[in-house]
Design goal:
heterodimer; A: 327 residues; alpha+beta; Rossmann fold; OB fold (Dihydrolipoamide Acetyltransferase, E2P); 2 domains; 5-stranded antiparallel β-sheet; 19 strands; B: 576 residues; mainly alpha; MetI-like fold; 23 helices
């Protein structure tokens, strides 16, 4: 049985259609990301799942029960979900321990049990020593861990995360991605994760929903999304790519799947010229123009593959790497 | 999609959430309260102005009576003249002071701020009385000092004159302009001034071409508020203009309220004051919100004080001159009078006594209860207004109900109703039967509540805006209701701001005169009315003692406010 089902959800604000015909079905314990540029409707969708906003059309079901429809919603406090907010929303008037224990307190657990569970979850997020501190004394990363502990300790039916890492610096962000995935693997909570950062979504998710202008572009596991993007938008949004027009169709060709050499390859070789290059440490980023073509292709090559500007080179393109996409 | 293959008729949990929604009850209660406090007095004021005193029929007779005599019309012009002159003089005091305090290295900036605060918390009637002691013809101290120094027959100062009134009004209203101007100047970043400097402009040219123009809308806004304060003021004109044999709008209104009470004529006569206030408040809002002054919309970046060199001491001297006129001299001679057997006998040991304090605190027939009334009514109205303000601000900011913005508007609307006009509205609405609140504590408390509600609302609104709604959403998603969120998160986080808002209403409410003078009864006298009566009777020793007691009782409140909110809590934009 599915844990969470969104059935043809739509939401408009006045004339603006924020979310349109959104359908998604999640298995228990699945981790799904909603990925897209800002304004694509991902946060609106998440807030509808949380119950902060009724859909204009469609229904949301959890464990076979309708919890949201245009006619009415089960309020957030009765959904047994939890959520991590962009601002963390750690209550500054309560200590770390009080923050984390709040949800258990509302659920009227015995005091001793609350204490035990809070201690355990704080150990899991490596915050055990800071239980008595107030949030103002914590760093951004520590506040993030408190938010995680507070959301997980109640063992929610569904965990919702709204761009939880966007306020952290780059190093911490990378660390916390793995932390979130680790906690998911440990607790197996059905999770919806909203982000505009594709690598965040790829590290954490079982499946990714790519959204654009309120609509779903594609739902697939990360490697399928990258390898077989269905639309031009997805191909351009997940990783970088070249678009090649052939016979009226558009193909996506990843810079990594183009070979670059001085000698002519055995098959599928195209002679070209280096028009621009940038060294990025881990790889070279070349702009290479096939002879007789107007548009250069972007090609990634290893750090040792050094070519000079204007140098004649050979491109090797495997036809299987060309993925046809919708325009 | 796979979704369509699922069972089509799932059971539903939605119905449970529907049914009676308690927010509607709240909505009805708040609408009713605001109708009672804000709309009804205003509507009654309008109706009364067109109602015949005897028959109750529609008539223009009240307007004919109100504007039918030359001296009534003259009083209108006197008010305009007073407002204009006082605002300009106050601007002359406030703008250089504000610039020196917020942008330069003038010594004693903290001291100057404190002195401005001391001026701000001096009630206008206390200041007026002090200046009667200072510059009354013949007996005034400045005149006596002048005579002693020059041997002339009489001194040149006469507070009972139009210039005297302008000076007293300007001295105690300049803090409004100071607050507006410092708020604006503190948002002009040093980088903007640096940009002018590096292009070759000196300190003066930079100030003239960059700093002042950026602050200009705020300064003009402050001047308008000062003008409106001046024309709405009752105490100083009543103490100074009436002996000087001229009237302004407020004193004329008071005379219409004399025996017999002609409330219909008063209502008609109050209209120009109301209209001018509404128009100017609109102008002021438009001006301070004007686009293009980006410097005033965001954070100002770093600010370094401008080095004035020797000019620092000139600036400091100017600040001390103003403080001498508004604080040092007035309080010195108030103290002298309060501790004197007879204030005219001057400073000597045999003239020293504490009897005046003993008398007003323990022996006087009404003064002790007046002190108690002031604090009781002040506390009650500040509390009611805080509850209304925070409820409406929350509803408006969280968009809990439709048309919430309308409620917010009603909360700030009393700002455009001068105290005397508000009092006439309350009198028209609630003095006659069936409500018949005249002479009771209720009419005082309700009028004070309405009068200071805008201050409470502006502060409550700012406090709630600073609160990220995610704080409450986090409570709800974890299983807490909205009430739990309010109790466990919102209230604890807003405690300080609400205390600040409460104090900002309570402090002026304890000294309110202009609405109280029209609404008090024999059993509901407040300190301000008491002081006003004593000045009428010429009991300056008792009066000074009572005025100082009032100031003394305010000090701990200021201390609490500064501890809870910050040193400048009275001198912020939201304080006015």
């Amino acid at each position: 049985m599915s844990k969470l089902i969104l059935r043809n959800i739509a939401r408009s604000f006045g004339d603006f259609q924020a979310v349109n015909d959104f359908s998604l079905e999640m298995k228990p314990g699945e981790f799904v990301s909603l990925l897209g540029p800002s304004g694509c409707g991902k946060t609106t969708t998440l807030r509808m799942i949380a119950g902060f906003m009724p859909p204009s059309a469609g229904t949301i079901e959890m464990d076979g029960q309708v919890i949201s429809s245009a006619a009415g919603v089960v309020p957030p406090e009765r959904r047994r979900m939890s959520m991590i907010f962009q601002s963390y929303a750690i209550w500054p008037n309560m200590t770390v321990g009080e923050n984390v224990g709040f949800g258990l307190e509302v659920r009227k657990l015995p005091r001793a049990e609350i204490g035990r569970r809070v201690d355990r979850i704080l150990e899991v997020v490596q915050m055990g020593a800071l239980k008595g501190r107030y949030p103002a004394e914590l760093s951004g990363g520590q506040q993030q861990r408190v938010a995680l502990a507070r959301a997980i300790v109640v063992e929610p039916e569904v965990l919702l995360l709204d761009e939880p890492l966007s306020n952290l610096d780059a190093n911490l962000r990378e660390e916390m991605r793995f932390e979130i995935r680790r906690l998911h693997d440990e607790f197996k909570i059905t999770t919806v994760y909203v982000t505009h950062d594709q690598s965040e979504a790829m590290v954490t998710s079982d499946r990714i929903v790519v959204m654009n202008k309120g609509r779903i572009e594609q739902i697939d596991p990360p490697h399928v999304l990258y390898g077989k993007p269905r639309s031009r938008f997805v191909a351009g949004f997940i990783g970088r790519t070249n678009f090649v027009e052939r016979g009226g169709a558009t193909y996506s060709l990843r810079p990594q799947s183009i070979g670059l050499s001085v000698a002519e390859p055995a098959a599928n070789g195209i002679e070209a010229e280096i028009v621009d290059r940038a060294y990025l440490g881990e790889h070279w980023d070349y702009q290479v123009k096939p002879l007789g073509e107007a548009k250069p292709l972007r090609v990634s090559a290893g750090p040792n593959a050094i070519f000079e500007l204007s140098q004649r080179v050979w491109l090797e393109i495997d036809p299987a790497a060309m993925v046809r996409v919708e325009a | 999609m796979t979704v369509s293959a699922l069972p089509a008729a799932p059971t539903t949990a939605v119905q449970r959430s529907r049914g009676f929604d308690p927010t509607w009850l709240l909505w009805i209660v708040i609408i009713a309260v605001l109708l009672f406090l804000v709309v009804s007095p205003f509507v009654h004021l309008l109706i009364t102005s067109f109602k015949s005193e005897r028959t109750g029929a529609f008539t223009f007779a009240n307007y004919a009576a109100a504007y039918g005599r030359e001296r009534y019309v003259q009083a209108l012009f006197n008010s305009l003249q007073l407002g204009t002159c006082a605002a300009l003089l106050a601007g002359l005091f406030a703008v250089p002071l504000a610039w020196a305090v917020s942008r330069t290295d003038m010594p004693g900036r903290g001291l100057v701020r404190t002195l401005v605060l001391a001026t701000f918390v001096t009630p206008p009637y206390t200041g007026a009385v002090a200046w009667i002691l200072l510059a009354g013809p013949n007996a005034g101290w400045l005149n006596r000092i002048f005579v002693a120094l020059t041997g002339a027959e009489s001194g040149p100062f006469n507070i009972y004159s139009f210039p005297g009134l302008v000076l007293v009004v300007a001295l105690y209203s300049y803090p409004y302009i100071f607050i507006f101007t410092t708020a604006a100047l503190e948002l002009v970043s040093s980088e903007m001034e640096d940009a002018a400097n590096i292009l070759g402009a000196g300190t003066w040219r930079t100030m003239r071409r960059v700093t002042l123009p950026l602050a200009l809308p705020a300064i003009l806004g402050g001047l308008i508020i000062c003008f409106l304060e001046a024309i709405a003021l009752f105490a100083s004109p009543a103490m100074i203009a009436i002996p000087a044999r001229f009237n302004v709008v407020t004193t004329q209104l008071f005379q219409f309220f004399g025996n017999p009470v002609r409330v219909e004529v008063a209502a008609a006569y109050a209209m120009p004051l109301l209209v001018v206030t509404i128009l100017l408040v609109v102008v002021q809002r438009l001006m301070t919100r004007r686009k293009g002054f980006v410097a005033l919309t965001g954070k100002g970046g770093d600010r370094r004080p401008i080095a004035l060199g020797r000019g620092r001491w000139v600036a400091f001297g100017y600040a001390m001159l103003i403080a001498t006129m508004s604080v040092f001299l007035p309080y010195l001679f108030l103290l002298q009078a309060a501790f004197a057997k007879a204030w005219g006998k001057g400073f000597s040991l045999e003239n020293l006594t504490i009897r005046n304090f003993h008398f007003v605190l323990f022996e006087h027939a009404t003064a002790p209860s007046a002190v108690a009334h002031s604090f009781l009514y002040g506390a009650a109205s500040a509390t009611v207004a805080t509850v209304i303000a925070i409820s409406v601000a929350y509803i408006v900011n969280r968009r809990l109900i439709r048309f919430a913005d309308g409620l917010g508007f009603l909360c700030v609307a009393p700002f455009v109703i001068p105290g005397v006009v508000l009092a006439i509205g309350f009198y028209s609405a609630y003095a006659p039967p069936p409500i018949a609140l005249y002479g009771t504590a209720w009419i005082m408390i309700l009028a004070f509540t309405t009068r200071f509600l805008p201050i409470g609302y502006v502060n409550a609104n700012a406090a709630i805006r600073s609160l990220n709604p995610e704080m409450e959403e986090a409570v709800r998603v974890l299983g807490g209701s909205r009430m739990t969120a309010l109790r466990r998160v919102v209230t604890p986080l807003l405690k300080r701001s609400l205390l600040g808002a409460w104090l900002l209403m309570f402090i002026p409410a304890t000294r309110e005169l202009s609405s109280a003078i029209f609404l008090y009864g024999p059993k509901t006298k407040v300190v301000a009315v008491m002081i006003f009566d004593m000045s009428d009777e010429g009991n300056f020793e008792y009066l000074a003692a009572l005025a100082l007691i009032l100031q003394l009782l305010t000090l701990p409140l200021l201390w609490i406010g500064q501890r809870a909110i910050g040193r400048d809590f009275m001198l912020r934009r939201t304080a006015t």
